[in-house]
Amino acid sequence: MADLDPGMAKLLADIEKSPLPRFWQMSVAEAREFALENNKISNGPIPSGAVITTHEIPSPHGPIPVRLYRPKNQPDDKVLPLLLYFHGGGWVINSAQDLDVSSILLCQAADCLIASVDYRLAPEHPFPKGVEDATTALQWVQQNAGEWGADLHRIAVGGDSSGGNLAAVSAHLNRDQGGPDLSFQLLLYPNTDIDGDYPSRQEFGKGYCLEWEGMEWFIDQYAPDPKEHQNPKMSPLRSENFSRLPPALVLTAGFDPLRDEGLAYVQKLQESGIPVQHEHFATVLHGFFLMRGLSPQVVDRAIAVSGAALKRAF
Q1: Along the chain (314 residues), what's the average pLDDT of each consecutive run of 10 residues?
Q2: Peptide bond preceding 71 in cis form (omega within 30 of 0)
Q3: Which CATH architecture has domain 6-313?
Q4: Pairing mode, if any, of strands 50-57 and 64-71?
Q5: Which residues are bridge partners to 57 per DSSP?
Q6: What angle do CA 193, 306, 194 make, to 5 degrees?
Q7: C-alpha pair distances (Å), 291 with each of 178, 274, 285
Q8: Per-domain residue ranges for the chain?
Q9: Annotated active-site positions, please?
Q10: pLDDT, position 145
């Protein structure tokens, strides 16, 4: 097995030395504040390559906030493809703004707009509220994102971790509901199977930043009813139908308890004849898209791979 990236090895050493409790030992409010402060450090400086504006998508429960990124290297009046993005954080923590660094760089690399959705978070809004917001946002941009300068015929979905889960579920539901064909799905170390039993959960479930005890805390906040855990709207790997899904790029991380369910999702797509590109980043931890300040070369490579795949799809 590859060695852990030095920047991420230092992160683990710092966590080990820290007297602070882990996030799953905190209240939800404390965990959110803790994540906010840590993300500022791990992300590194915010680049200046995009124009960022804020918008709202109407929904039955009230407006859904959206953070829109437009690359500065494209003319202001140029119609661009759009990636609808869902941030990670176990459906409980983080926000679209926490991914400013990677979103700015990715919109430049892909020559596209990125609309990053602040869907409702658990436990205040448990499953399936996040799925409902993701579906509402997708349906709205498919009809209305032209007012943002988007090409309605070139729309993709994407997300990291739990956001990758929402992106994958959205692709399934869009097909089931007869929505317009999506151009692509970008799934970054996605959570695809809540109840599965995978070796990576045992191998990396303790001591590698996202510990399985923490993952169980997220699941308890998002879906306290265990009967929901095999619902394909929560565990898209459990879907009985993988046909007619959009092409995909799936990124997995070497030191990640979710690694194997990402690999299983790649296999399911391949078995169903869906064009899928799999890129494995062997030296990194789960959540590495938010760690450019620790490991810039790895994150920049992941952004380059993702941007190139989106360009081809669009």
Answers
A1: 92 92 94 94 95 97 97 94 98 98 98 98 98 98 98 98 98 98 98 95 96 96 95 98 98 98 98 98 97 97 98 98
A2: no
A3: 3-Layer(aba) Sandwich (3.40)
A4: antiparallel
A5: 64
A6: 5
A7: 37, 30, 9
A8: 6-313
A9: 161, 256, 286
A10: 97
The model's pTM:
0.98
* Residue located via tokens 């938010």: 290
Degrees (nearest 5) of the Cα angle 49, 312, 292?
A: 40
Length of the chain: 314
Q: Tell me how far CA of residue 128 lies from CA of 20, 62, 118, 124, 223, in angstroms.
A: 32, 16, 15, 12, 8
Q: Which residues contact 198 (CB under 8 A, 6 or more apart)?
A: 257, 259, 260, 261, 264
Given a contact cutoff of 8 angstroms between Cβ atoms, the answer to whether 179 and 140 are in contact is no
Residue recorded with tokens 């070796």: 199
Burial class (CB in 10 A: 0-12, 13-18, 19+), 168: buried
